[in-house]
């Protein structure tokens, strides 16, 4: 999936974990920081103003990036998933000039669940959600003195390098904290011959969801991954990975159903099931 001289859209501002991921995996490309939502990132892609986009999908603590998945579902007819790539996430606590003592931590909401072990020793410290980890630090550095005296921002080292501040604590994340990112391009012809098939399902009922799995499995396309965790929701898109049996005609027939959209085809190594399995690999 690596390339050169392309424009890669990622959620901004600079210093986000999407920026960190794109910087690592697309070093020889131009990065386009989109401040707003994941839908704004994908809109930049489908409008032709970017060649690829990087979207976080799932964290190793089991939490799904729901706003990102909703955006993928919204643009399911116009995008193509090229593959999944794991990215190790490291969190630091950064403070601003004038800091005296820690009373409040600010970061993106999902970050706090990735630092549970460390946070147990700070039971009296309040937490506050920010639009992003990098925005948390940017806003803290510009905050009034009374805020800077008692507040720390949880962010990555890249944000601290870009905006400044002082690291108070390093690597406060839970062990093996990893996020799976999807690399996305504009829509391509259906990947009917890919080893692994990724289907976006927008079923209104759980019966529809289960029937889809049954139909694919009965036709020789075994289920390898499902994004559903817990109870079924009729409002959230679901992402299913099937192993391709090579029966293109049968696959086309399975995809005629209006709630089933083929949005990607990958090798097994770059599939969601393989990446998810790697989350539990002690050597990763």
Question: Percent of residues in beta strands?
Answer: 25-35%
The profile of the biggest β sheet is: 5 strands, mixed
Q: What order do the strands of the largest sheet run in, or round the barrel if closed? A: 2-1-3-10-4
Could you state the oligomeric state of the chains shown? single chain
| Low-confidence parts | none
Mean pLDDT: 92
Number of strands: 14
What would the principal axes of the Cα set say about the shape? elongated
- Percentage of helical residues? 25-40%
Rg, rounded, reads: 20 Å
Written overview of the protein:
By secondary structure, the chain is α/β, with parallel strands linked by helices. The chain has eleven helices and 14 strands. It has helices at residues 17-25, 38-46, 66-74, 109-112, 116-119, 133-141, 145-148, 157-163, 206-218, 248-254, 272-278, and strands at 7-11, 30-34, 52-59, 79-88, 92-95, 104-108, 126-130, 151-155, 166-169, 178-186, 196-201, 223-226, 238-243, 260-266. The strands form three sheets. Strands 2-1-3-10-4 form a five-stranded mixed sheet, with helices on both faces. The longest helix is centred in the last third of the chain and has 13 residues, at 206-218. The two termini are 20 Å apart. The model has no long low-confidence stretch (mean pLDDT 92).
């Amino acid at each position: 999936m690596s390339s050169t001289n392309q424009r890669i859209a990622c959620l901004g501002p600079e210093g986000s974990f999407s920026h960190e991921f794109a910087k690592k995996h697309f070093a020889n490309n131009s990065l386009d920081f989109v401040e707003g939502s994941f839908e704004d990132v994908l809109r930049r892609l489908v409008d032709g103003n970017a060649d690829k986009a990087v979207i976080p999908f799932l964290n190793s603590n089991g939490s799904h990036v729901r706003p990102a998945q909703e955006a993928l579902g919204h643009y399911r007819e116009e995008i193509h998933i090229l593959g999944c790539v794991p990215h190790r996430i490291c969190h630091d606590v950064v403070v601003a000039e004038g800091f005296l003592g820690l009373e409040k931590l600010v970061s993106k909401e999902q970050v706090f669940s990735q630092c549970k072990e460390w946070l147990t020793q700070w039971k009296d410290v309040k937490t506050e959600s920010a639009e992003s980890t990098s925005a948390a630090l940017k806003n803290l550095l510009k905050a009034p003195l009374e805020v800077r005296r008692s507040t720390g921002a949880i962010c990555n080292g890249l944000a601290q390098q870009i905006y400044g501040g002082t690291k108070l604590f390093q690597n406060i994340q839970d062990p093996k904290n990893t996020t799976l990112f999807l690399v996305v391009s504009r829509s391509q012809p259906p990947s009917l011959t890919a080893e692994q098939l990724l289907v976006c399902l927008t079923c209104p009922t759980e019966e529809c969801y289960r029937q889809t799995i049954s139909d694919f499995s009965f036709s020789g396309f075994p289920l390898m991954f499902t994004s559903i965790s817990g109870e079924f929701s009729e409002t959230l898109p679901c992402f299913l990975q099937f192993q391709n049996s090579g029966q293109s005609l049968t696959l086309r027939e399975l995809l005629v159903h209006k709630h089933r959209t083929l949005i990607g085809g990958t090798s097994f190594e770059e599939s969601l099931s393989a990446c998810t399995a790697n989350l539990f690999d002690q050597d990763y």
